[in-house]
Amino acid sequence: MSQEKLQSHTVQTTGHAWDGDLQEYNNPIPDWWLYAFYISVLAAVAYWFTYPAWPIGNGFTTGFDQITYVNDKGVTKTTHWNTRALLMHETNEAVAAQKPYFDKVAAMPFEQIAKNPELNSFVLSAGKQLFSDNCAACHQQGGGGKMDFAPNLTDDDWLYGGHYANIQQTITDGRHGYMPPFAEVLTDAQMTQLADYVLSLSHNAVNPESAKAGDVLFHSETAACYYCHGVDAKGRQAHGSANLTDSIWLWADVPDAKTIPLKEAAVKNVIRTGLNKGVMPSWKDRLSAEQIKLLTVYVHELGGGK
Amino acid sequence: MNVGIEEPRALYQKRIPIVTRSVKGRFRNFKWGVMVLAYAVFFGLPWLPWTRHGVVSQAVMFDLAERRFFIFDLVMYPQNIFWLALLLFIAAVLLFFATSLIGRAFCGYFCFQTLWTDIFIWIEKLVQGERPARIRLQRQPWNGEKILKLGVTHGLWLLISFWTGMTFVLYYGYAPDLLVRFFTGHAVYAAYVTVFSLTLTTYAAAGLMREQICAYICPYGRFQSVMYDPETLAVAYDAKRGDGSMGRAAPRAELKIHEIRQQKGYGDCIDCGFCVQVCPAGIDIRDGLQYRCISCGLCIDACNTIMDSVGYPRGLIRYDSEANLALPEPAKPHIHWKRIKVVGYFVALSVMTGALIYSIATRTNFEHDVQQIRQPLYVVLSNGDIRNRYQIHLTNKSGADMEYRISTQGLPPGALAMDESQTVKVRSGNSVLVQASIILTPQQVGKYPRFDFVITPISEPDGRVVEQVNFYSRTNEQ
User: Fold this and answer.
1) Structural domain of B379
2) I need a surface site. Which of A49, A178, B277, B305 has the fewest CB within 10 A?
3) CATH number for the A108-174+282-303 domain, one of 1.10.760.10, 3.30.230.70, 3.40.50.620, 3.40.1080.10?
């Protein structure tokens, strides 16, 4: 082919010609792109030396960058850079940033924390977080509790007492509520009478005759309810027996039962089977004393004081 | 040959360096004035002390860590973000307004790209001399003199760029303290990154790229062009007067005399090229209005200087409108404001400025927020009463510590049971969360589905706010 058919007069080509006139344009990538590429290659090398990079046998090159952190056992550790250590390091920093507030909470008596608006604001926000992480699984977000499962912390009825010291002890050591089953001791009719008596205490319109019989049974040695629930049926906070005279129910869903027979059935069910499920774990091994104190103030503000 | 192959065109035109000649005149003086003022404000403001209760004594400071901006006696919080939005609206409309009246005035006199380019060119002239000397220096081979002069120029540029970046950062902290920390290596990482990148961009934009920023990068310059009307005043060359019927001619021999020149049909332009040499955008204004023109007015100064020296009337290049120049007998140039667009911009500008001033003047000294706690929505107490709980967020924006009284209205007495005392003390610039409980008997519940919280700053009872909230219970849920 003659040179005239080639296109290289106007556009730069790679200089090769195949099949006579088949040529390839020479359009190099822009300089800025090329140099940026070289710089990124150099940056990659810098990364190899800084961070873990190349696998070697069972291990890998660790890089020269190091992170120092204090683990949960209080031991200071220094390792090569890795995201887990980085998380630990940043957690240490966050804990250090919160420490002044926690120290203040630890140093102050309960009542004064609640009266100090700024410290109390910290209690409300940090407490909400701690509560969500540790307590909300049973007591629900916000502390509303769940019928037949976990007590409502926002009302004024406290099985083990709602003062600061009671709440602190509950969180620290946990609780275990127990009521024996009465299926083998009482007849069905007796249980209905007892249920009617208990319902009458919170002003439910039950059969007065039956309730009166239940009253006798309650204070008799046969059922012996008064041993735990007290002669006045108001419960004993020392061992967590429920106050049966108020409108708050935990194990028998009386508020949602629409008719008297349904309410009776709910109460009778508790009498028949007893309770061995009111278990709250101890938190002293999982939470620090300051965290428990902060949670105590937080829970107290949900509805404590009684 | 070459069928189907387009003529290859380079997409990138290599920059032709622009070496400007200095000029004296009214517009140059105005530009110096603007520059001195702008630099005095920008570089000086972080160092201006201000007496303020409790916090830093710096007149203007943007405190990002504490989330508040101090601007003299005004303290802005994130809640005031809409002031910034309004300010940006106002700035935009002001730009439109000014552009439709007098063209790209912002570009030519106030834009920081123009200001910094101006100072960089001034340094260039100071070190390397006037335009011919600079061109000579450019062309000569590398030797000691060239290295020294260019080195000093670029060194000074970098120094100014660095101080520009540094000053920007000083607005975000207490300047004397931050400066010391910066140089002792104790400032935050962000400060170093900001100073470094601003140094680099200032040096590149004002020293190396200059008019290319306006021509290729800046969107404002380009969209201002579409706001020009025939009545808009712009820097213009009076082609009729300048070119005449015979064109431009050098003032040689008898053509020096104005009357003879005009009789022969020659224009007033003597083709000296001074207007081109002074142009920082590198254009010839005699080619008419063009997108690269930033309307800085330096060619007007240049042409007037020449007209004075040859004894012709001034104003061959002047601020004038396209419409006026097209008339057979151009009238004296004046601002045409009687246009619907201009009046519209002015009205919008006035309304928004008024709204901003009103909003700032009537700002409250505290921020409040009342939220009902919805988990759980309501609580039945042991005696059957219903309790609702509320969280009240208070931010004290005033310069002094404040006490607030929280009370209710529209509720039976005794319903408000605060977890704390009814007065709350908040330190200046701080926020607190307060909880309030409302307890109603089952009989009362239906009667009070709604009530008000009243928050009263004790020292300023007139500044009280009323917030209506709901009371939930099983009865009004149905």
Assistant:
1) 366-477
2) A49
3) 1.10.760.10
Residue where a domain terminates, one of B184, B201, B225: B225
Distance CA B332, CA A239 (A): 101
Q: Are residues B213 and B82 in the same domain?
A: yes
Closest CB to B420: pick one of A120, A144, A155.
A120
Reported as a pLDDT band with limits 50, 70 and 90, residue B223 is confident
Please give chain A's pLDDT, 306 residues, in tens. Answer: 444 555 445 667 888 888 888 888 888 888 899 999 999 999 999 999 999 999 999 999 999 999 999 988 889 999 999 999 999 999 999 999 999 999 999 999 998 988 888 888 899 999 999 999 999 999 999 899 999 999 999 988 899 999 999 999 999 999 998 999 999 999 999 999 999 999 999 888 999 999 999 999 999 998 899 999 999 999 998 888 999 998 889 999 998 888 999 999 999 999 999 998 889 999 999 999 999 999 999 999 887 665
Contacts of residue B379 in chain A, CB cutoff 8 Å? Answer: 144, 152, 154-155, 303
Distance from CA of A133 to the nearest CA of B (A): 16
CB neighbour list of residue B54: distance below 8 Å, 6 or more residues apart: B399, B428, B429
B421 touches chain A (CB under 8 A): yes
Class of the CATH-defined domain A175-280? mainly alpha
- pLDDT for the residue B381: 87
Contact B382 A156 (CB under 8 A): yes
pLDDT digits (tens, 9 = 90+) for B60-71: 999 888 888 889
| A31 at B interface, C-beta within 8 A | no
Domain residue ranges of chain A, discontinuous segments joined by +: 1-50, 108-174+282-303, 175-280
- Is there a contact between A115 and B421 if contact means CB atoms under 8 Å apart? yes
Instruction: Pick A117's closest partner by Cβ from B1, B389, B420.
Output: B420
Q: Are B451 and B411 in contact (CB under 8 A)?
A: yes
**Do residues B58 and B49 lie in contact, with contact meaning Cβ atoms separated by under 8 Å?**
yes
Where do the DSSP E strands lie in A37-196?
55-56, 59-60, 66-70, 76-80, 175-179
Is the bond into A281 cis (omega within 30 degrees of 0)?
no
**Which residue of chain A comes nearest to B390, CA vs CA?**
A302
pLDDT tens for B292-305 read: 999 999 999 999 99
Given an 8 Å threshold on Cβ–Cβ distance, is A155 in contact with B382? yes
Phi, psi of B297 (to 5 degrees): 85, 0
B475 touches chain A (CB under 8 A): no
| Chain A residues near residue B376 by CB distance under 8 angstroms | 140, 142-144, 152, 154
Q: Biggest alpha carbon distance in chain B?
A: 116
Q: Which two tokens stand for residue B250?
A: 């050098």
B389 neighbourhood in chain A, CB within 8 Å: 154
Joined together, the tokens standing for residue A37 give 């590429």
Q: Do B1 and A140 touch (CB under 8 A)?
A: no
User: Shortest CA distance to A297 belongs to which of A97, A36, A120?
Assistant: A120
In a domain, B113, yes or no: yes
Q: Are B433 and A142 inside 8 Å of each other by CB?
A: no
| The total number of structural domains that make up chain B | 3
What confidence score (pLDDT) does residue B194 get? 97
Contacts of A243 in chain B (CB under 8 A): 382
Q: What is the ipTM of this complex?
A: 0.77
Residue in chain B closest to A155 (alpha carbons) equals: B381
